[in-house]
Amino acid sequence: MVSSSIPTVDLSPFFNEGGDEHGRKEAIETITKACLEHGFFQIVNHGIPTDLMNKALQHSKTFFQYPPEEKLKSSPRPGEGACQLPIGYNIQPDHSVDKNEYFLVFQPGSSYNVYPENLPELRSVMEDLYPRFVGIGSLMESIINDCLGLPPNFLKEYNDERSWDFMAAFHYFPATESENNGITEHEDGNCITFVFQDEVGGLEVRKDGEWIPVVPEEGSIVVNVADFIQVMSNKKFNSATHRVVRSEGKSRYSYGFFYNLNWDKWVEPLPQFTTEIGEPPKYKRFQVREYQMMRMKNKQHPPARPEDEIGITYYAIDT
Ligand SMILES: O=C(O)CCC(=O)C(=O)O
Ligand SMILES: [Fe+2]
């Protein structure tokens, strides 16, 4: 298999009770380098069984192959509930540059979740997967805490509420001869993102102006640092620009888990990366809710030019 140029990190030292100090140090060095450069890496030996990941992809495929009217039964009706995220089944509107459909859930037990009644396997596999992703999310957060040299548990104590995380199954339609955009280039508006994809591939990350494919590797999970880590670290760590390109003649299936922040939180560059080292802040302080609402409005009513979509540069301070 062609190896991707995104670094792969072995997480087994973090599950080793005896404490493999050397292995942990090595992983922390690789992750730090990846976050300074691409903002992307893959993890292996992360504790989520490959079987479970494959099963999740299979069940999502079964669901996405249902006729539209069947899938729409798992979409909340407009005006129902107070959820501001597009929960359940959604397909990108025709005018969107993104060509995909997805199925989004909050943590198991959330009253917002809507699962297809005739496919209980999808619910059970997603509810099995979800807490495992939360576990990897908090492990990765503590690793990134160390990579940034923050006081022990700083990020954990700041990001202390898990009900704003979400997980989604994605289906990208086969490309046509004239058009192959799956998700247009963007940065993620959360803390840390985790993705696993089937063998079709199509996820690409931009580095030095070039698009680098994230080559699928069975059982591995792609990790990327997202906007809130970029802001808190005053752009020391990179929320990388990425996109999904569709393949001709082939559907692609993937899952994403978005480790997030409570929408009531305020985010700003930390003193460790500004005042304490004599650097001006590169971002204004902002509330997560405001940023998320602007991004969602963009998704529902995309601007005429995709480059006019709101991203984290909205809060950038010219230095
Ligand atoms: O499906 C993928 O590989 C990535 C999806 C993605 O970038 C996103 O939802 O933000
Ligand atoms: Fe993304």
Task: Spell out the blueprint of helices and strands.
Elements: E1 8-10, H1 21-36, E2 40-44, H2 50-64, H3 68-72, E3 88-91, E4 100-105, H4 120-147, H5 154-158, E5 166-172, E6 181-186, E7 192-197, E8 203-207, E9 210-213, E10 221-225, H6 227-232, E11 242-245, E12 252-259, E13 266-267, E14 286-287, H7 288-300
Parallel strand pairs: 1-2
Antiparallel strand pairs: 2-10, 3-4, 4-5, 5-12, 6-11, 7-10, 7-12, 8-9, 8-11, 13-14
Bound molecules: 2-oxoglutaric acid (AKG) and fe (ii) ion.
- The proportion of strand residues reads 15-25%
What CATH architecture label applies? Sandwich
Describe the main β-sheet briefly. Answer: 8 strands, mixed
Shape estimate: globular
Care to count the β-strands? 14
Low-confidence stretches: none
Structural category is: alpha+beta
CATH-assigned fold name: Jelly Rolls
CATH class division: Mainly Beta
Mean pLDDT: 93
* Overall radius of gyration: 19 Å
Q: Supply the number of structural domains.
A: 1
Distance between the terminal alpha carbons, to the nearest Å?
A: 44 Å
Helix content: 25-40%
- What's the CATH H-level homologous superfamily? B-lactam Antibiotic, Isopenicillin N Synthase, Chain
Order of strands, widest sheet: 1-2-10-7-12-5-4-3
Spell the H/E element sequence: EHEHHEEHHEEEEEEHEEEEH
> If helices are DSSP runs of H or I spanning 4 or more residues, what is the number of helices?
7
> What small molecules does the structure contain?
2-oxoglutaric acid, fe (ii) ion
3D architecture notes:
By secondary structure, the protein is of the alpha+beta class. The chain has one domain (8-315): Sandwich (Jelly Rolls), CATH 2.60.120.330. 28% of the residues lie in helices and 21% in strands. It contains 7 helices and 14 strands. The chain has an 8-stranded mixed β-sheet. Strands 6-11-8-9 form a 4-stranded antiparallel β-sheet, with no helix packed on it. Strands 13-14 form a two-stranded antiparallel sheet. Helix 1 links the parallel strand 1 and strand 2. The termini are far apart. The structure holds 2-oxoglutaric acid and fe (ii) ion. 2-oxoglutaric acid (AKG) is lined by residues 170, 183, 188, 195, 197, 203, 242, 244, 254, 256. 2-oxoglutaric acid is lined by residues 170, 183, 188, 195, 197, 203, 242, 244, 254, 256.
